[in-house]
Amino acid sequence: xxxxxxxxxxxxxxxxxxxxxxxxxxxxxxxxxxxxxxxxxxxxxxxxxxxxxxxxxxxxxxxxxxxxxxxxxxxxxxxxxxxxxxxxxxxxxxxxxxxxxxxxxxxxxxxxxxxxxxxxxxxxxxxxxxxxxxxxxxxxxxxxxxxxxxxxxxxxxxxxxxxxxxxxxxxxxxxxxxxxxxxxxxxxxxxxxxx
Length: 195
Ligand SMILES: [Zn+2]
Fold this sequence. Notes:
Blueprint: H1 2-9, H2 27-30, E1 54-59, E2 65-71, E3 81-83, H3 86-91, E4 94-96, E5 102-107, E6 113-116, E7 124-128, E8 134-141, E9 144-150, E10 164-166, H4 173-183, E11 187-192
Parallel strand pairs: 3-10, 5-11
Antiparallel strand pairs: 1-2, 2-5, 3-4, 4-9, 6-7, 7-8, 8-9
The protein binds zinc ion.
């Protein structure tokens, strides 16, 4: 196979293939795989990129629950999802999440952390028993937790993208799970500061 490749690049029987003047590699060359001559070095220039992390802070009204969502997305790229189920509608809750982000919920007084389950009874809606504010939804499962934050509790609420209306209540359980897997923040930590 190699011999065949050499003959494609130069005179028959040549022991080395011509090296392109440009370090840029044409698409066709990249697809040669094992037929590429061994003497040739492909140079990939990776552009140096600096990833900016945005830390969106927020919390409940009385300060018992503090939120911190760390994401590479700018706030305008996060579109709050207004859930039309009867529970979220009563709270006017709208959720944001980014699968690659991290959500930390700091709890000052654990006895004032409320959890409510409705619908499929699979996920916990977290609220503050002191001031009554719904801050997030968390799906605890083996190996970790996923979740989404109530956009209205973020200090950056005004900078977020356009809200969209969603209707996950129309989905069956498997479809809901798949949705959470796709949309929700995969790294959620609930930290209790009092002991
Ligand atoms: Zn509170």
